[in-house]
Amino acid sequence: MPAEPAIVVSDVTHRYGERVAVDQLSLTINEGEIFVFLGPNGSGKTTLFRLLSTLIPMQAGEVTVLGHKLHGETSVVRSRIGVVFQAASLDKKLTVAENLAHQGRLYGLRPPALGERSEALLATLGLTDRRNELVETLSGGMRRRVELAKGMLHEPDLLLLDEPSTGLDPGARFDLWDYLQTLKSQGVTIVLTTHMLEEAEKADRIAIMDQGKLAALDTPAALQASVGGDSITIQTDRPDILSQGIRDRFQCEPTLLDGTVRLEQPDGHQWISRLVEAFPEEIQAITLGRPTLEDVFIARTGHRYWNGEE
Length: 310
Known about the structure:
By secondary structure, this protein is of the alpha/beta class. It has 11 helices and 14 strands.
């Protein structure tokens, strides 16, 4: 049986004055999957997160979350989603347990259910021995765990996370994703934003955003396979001349990218010797790599991933 949609986004556009942050976006996120919005700063993913988490109102288009329209059924949507913000939302002067207690009361939880859920989450996230410690004494990774506990306290069906790995060391990132996989196995739909390419590869599906538009949407493996071959990058003093020479000699279409010449070819290792033999005076350095998500981004947008921040 195909999964039911957890989120349906239809022709959503959002502007800040004259600037279009999200541009006629349409996509579907299935129940029970880990879905990532990947893009550099300024790509529109944070605006979309704010829309999905009901922080800003809809301007144009329609979004359905867990069967409820975002515009008109906001209170129902809020009761069924958990949100973990990029910026910390903990009270540093309260203990871990006190932060959870206040969060639970906001959602109408009362003893004994509040205490039972709090203790269960503290145990799951390895925080039981920190329950009475002030948040300001915790490491960044520990604070992120408390944020996750807050977001899951009312047992939401959908968890939204904005750049959840920001400020975490590699070990804390591993723990975060281990917990997200546990939530997925329990049927929770997880949607997160990230600018980290290596983090996005852990998702079930990725939506690559660029300047408010959807540049690509598929599984990580399918996106990488869509590039069409190995990535060959050539450093040269005269990229225009080398590019034209490759075009004339091999009848293929290289691209110019930040002063380098780039090719995508099957069996890329066989092309290294051909290129060096054909253009020994033009090639300063040449590298070969398997397709990555950055290669996908370049292929779909025509510019490097981090250049999108501008």
